[in-house]
Write a structure and sequence with these properties.
Structural class: alpha+beta
Helix content: 10-25%
Strand content: 35-45%
Radius of gyration: 18 Å
Number of strands: 18
Oligomer: single chain
Order of helices and strands: EEHEEEHEEEEHEEHHEEEHEEEE
Length: about 260
């Protein structure tokens, strides 16, 4: 079997930056073990698998070690492949996901806009293990799918060297650290070692919680953000109450065929 495959750098217009995602277009769903093996072989933070239906596409995402419920950058990458490469007459594509239903990608002014669910974080006590893992006490801690840990300044976010083995024991998907930005509204980093991703370069799904948080703090519906990983990524965000818009660029690095 031969599977069309693209390696896309998302949330950047420059190769080797942003977050790399694999995109596999299938005629029908494969056995889960096969898809997991492909994601493991790709060794990217996420590989998206998409299947064409009568009207739209179905989508699933795998890290190198497990399937996950939601992924922003691999959805953006999938939309980029369909809109810019496969069917350029389109400017919007809708994906149906197992947990969150319809997720769309729309091209507007050369940006690819994700329409995702808003996942507002809730205040919680700061677990003592968070302080041990990060080495610095935060201003506040919240939780949604991930811990959202807030610090005073961008330099704090840049300085973290977490204990990833200890972080695996926390009772959440991952840890987002964030602060106001020096040259943008807010900055962040994201760590998910229990899913085989010590640090994710640019995390669209984390912004489902970051956007409503910073909207309330800054009293702004439209926000400009950077994720401060080594590769780095830029995101243009908008809060729409129960939905968020997360926009960015994308660039194709590899196009080929997977043979299984």
């Amino acid at each position: 079997m031969k599977i069309p495959y693209w390696h896309i750098d998302a949330f950047t217009s420059t190769p080797h930056h942003g977050n790399p995602a694999g995109v596999c277009i299938l005629e029908k769903w494969l056995n889960d073990e096969i898809m997991q093996n492909i994601a493991f072989e790709n060794n990217l933070s996420e590989t998206a698998f998409i299947v064409k239906t009568d009207c739209d596409y179905e989508i699933r995402w795998f890290t190198p070690i497990s399937e996950i419920d939601l992924c922003g950058h691999a959805t953006l990458a999938s939309g980029f492949v369909i809109i810019d490469i496969i069917d350029p007459k389109l400017n919007k594509v809708v994906f149906n996901s197992p947990k969150y239903g319809e997720l769309s990608v729309e091209k507007e002014n050369n940006l690819f806009q994700l329409n995702f669910p808003s996942l507002p974080p809730q205040q919680c006590e700061t677990p003592i293990n968070i302080i041990k893992v990060l080495g610095k006490e935060p201003i506040e801690t919240l939780i949604a799918d991930d811990y959202l840990v807030v610090y005073e300044k961008e330099e704090d976010i840049k300085s973290f060297k977490p204990d990833f083995n200890a972080m695996k024991k926390l009772d959440a998907r991952g840890v987002i650290v964030t602060s106001r930005g020096n040259d943008c509204d807010f900055v962040s980093r994201f760590f998910a070692p229990k899913f085989g991703i010590n640090e994710d370069p640019v995390t669209g799904s984390a912004h489902c919680s970051l956007i409503p948080y910073w909207k309330d703090k800054l009293q702004k519906d439209t926000l400009h953000a950077f994720q401060l990983s080594q590769r780095g990524g830029e995101l243009f965000c908008e809060d729409q109450n129960n939905r968020v818009i997360i926009a960015g660029n994308a660039v194709c690095y590899i196009n080929g065929t997977i043979t299984i």
